[in-house]
Amino acid sequence: MIRWQLFIHAPKENSTMSSEKRIDITQPLWDQSTFVGRFRHFAFISNPLLTFVPEKQLYEARDLYMKYKAGQEPPGTTMAQVIRAKQLYESAFHPDSGELQNVFGRMSFQMPGGCLATGAMLQWYRTATAVVFWQWVNQSFNALVNYTNRNANAPLSTKQMGVAYVSAMTAAMSTALTFKFVIQKRATNPILARFVPFVAVAAANWVNIPLMRQNEILLGLEVTDENGKVIGKSQIAPIKGISQVVTSRIVMCAPGMLLLPVIMEKIEPKPWMQRIKKAHILIQTAIVGIFLTFMVPTACALFPQRCKLSTDTIKRFEKENYEEIVKNTDGKPPKYVYFNKGL
């Protein structure tokens, strides 16, 4: 378990609120203007061990989080308890709706879920049937993650979710099968076939995530001033945010899906590997898991969670939204507006 004491100057764990300076529990513990600060924050809330925390404990953490936020925490509450409650709450509850998220869609499940799906795609890539099946499994998992981390202020209809799911599946499978058949016919290096899963996953991400978050683009996303006050909407803001999320998701899986094929191509012919063929899937899954343990917080930290957009850009492309911002700021629009890019 990641220990918050490693990253912040904090009091001893048994110190109580009466002797300790209060924190703003709604804000990250580390400076989000730096990559290192963002990495620490996402490592804090995406720790795979958080997946196994019982629901009862999660709800207890939520209660303490809310009580501390209101300044009504029980007497004797320690800073360690507050930080732990913050970690559990932010890892499991939706930031917009406050609802408990499906465990399989949480960022803390990205490592165990991702390593199983990716390990299988990299192991069973030789037949069209295997390619189609494991792309379906992976895209189903991705669709669940995207739905779980959607913007709750722009809900999708059942039809829109269905279209997004089917479109992503079609993109992944068609890309995978096309590349597979092209490589089989023209490529002389067999290792190229091992990269088919990555190409398919990358293509599907550019379909799946935008469609899952299409209402943010169609209806616009609320934007705020520097102090967090909502001053209007923008349709360009979600386009920027979604582009960054797609890039992060591809970066997240890239090392495992690009480096592991090279590793396996080198070691599979070895006699000792030939003697343990049934263990190849376990080896690949374990290696992918190691990559994802570091790449989940790394990819999430590539861009600030609180994204900013120049009001000059809104003025140029969204005149009506810009005029609304001007109206809501008494004719003095800020240089930048801010919004949550999502995960």
TrEMBL record:
Transmembrane segments: 162-179, 191-209, 281-304
Bilayer topology term: Multi-pass membrane protein
GO MF term list: monoatomic ion transmembrane transporter activity
Record's subcellular location: Mitochondrion membrane
Entry's Gene Ontology BP terms: serine import into mitochondrion
Keywords, sorted A to Z: Amino-acid transport, Membrane, Mitochondrion, Transmembrane, Transmembrane helix, Transport
GO CC annotation terms, alphabetical: mitochondrial inner membrane
InterPro entries, sorted: Mtc (IPR004686)
Domain of life: Eukaryota
Pfam families the record matches: SFXNs
Coiled coil: none
Family: Belongs to the sideroflexin family.
Record protein name field: Sidoreflexin
The organism's taxonomic lineage, starting at the top: Eukaryota, Metazoa, Ecdysozoa, Arthropoda, Hexapoda
